[in-house]
Amino acid sequence: MNEDRVMIRMKGITKRYTTKSVTTHVLRGIDLAVDAGEFVTIMGPSGAGKSTLLHIIGMLDDPTEGEYYLSGEAVHQLSDKRRSQLHKEFVGFIFQAYHLIDDLTVYENLETPLLYQKIKSAERKSRVCDILDRFQIVGKKDLFPSQLSGGHQQLVGVARAVISEPKLILADEPTGSLHSAQGKEIMELLKKLNYDGTTIIQVTHSDECAACSKRVVRLLDGWITK
């Protein structure tokens, strides 16, 4: 681990939920460092805390305790506004459940991250057209998510995550809804993005997908296991 290249550093990250008299521990004392440009896979059985850890890294959830630094910024001390801004500037998220906006077309879903970044109209149009072509979904651009198969919704979700050229891509089961040929294409795309310098952290149950990464972190009952 090269200290000068560390993008993500987590110290003692804990996540627990308390309801009435029951406390559920999801993450326990997670220490993790990821270099800029790494491709890391998080693996473990269902309920191990994988998605929760990914959501905390992506600033979509807060830890109960611990410190989290992203590109030198102390995320655990940031205001909600700055954290939201950092997420928009830094992170592309591929969700297991797609999270497309139901009342927007495919084109509009792809354009949305670029609107957040205040990218000018001509460049937005160029980027959306390019990504529609790259993912071979030009014919789907005027359809709504409900009109797409699960596989095509996942493709649009991946395309939306990469269109803003984020420094960090977080992928929760990125090939889960895709047939094998589409899944291989997505993993090849992620490998190319990583080769070009994008940091990638994926959660997967697939050994084949994990083999595309450079390091595997294993979780069990909220702990990182060696």
What is the assigned CATH homologous superfamily?
Answer: P-loop containing nucleotide triphosphate hydrolases
| Strand element count | 10
Range of helix content:
25-40%
* CATH fold topology: Rossmann fold
What kind of sheet is the major sheet?
A: 6 strands, mixed
Structural domain count: 1
The second-level CATH architecture is: 3-Layer(aba) Sandwich
Structural class: alpha/beta
Q: Mean pLDDT score, rounded?
A: 91
Report strand %.
25-35%
Q: Shape from CA axes? A: globular
CATH class: Alpha Beta
Give me the side-by-side strand order of the main sheet: 6-7-8-3-9-10
- Enumerate how many helices there are, as a single number: 7
H/E element order: EEEHEEHEHHHEHEHEE
Distance between the termini: 16 Å
The value of Rg in angstroms is 18 Å
Regions with little confidence, pLDDT below 50 for 5+ residues: none
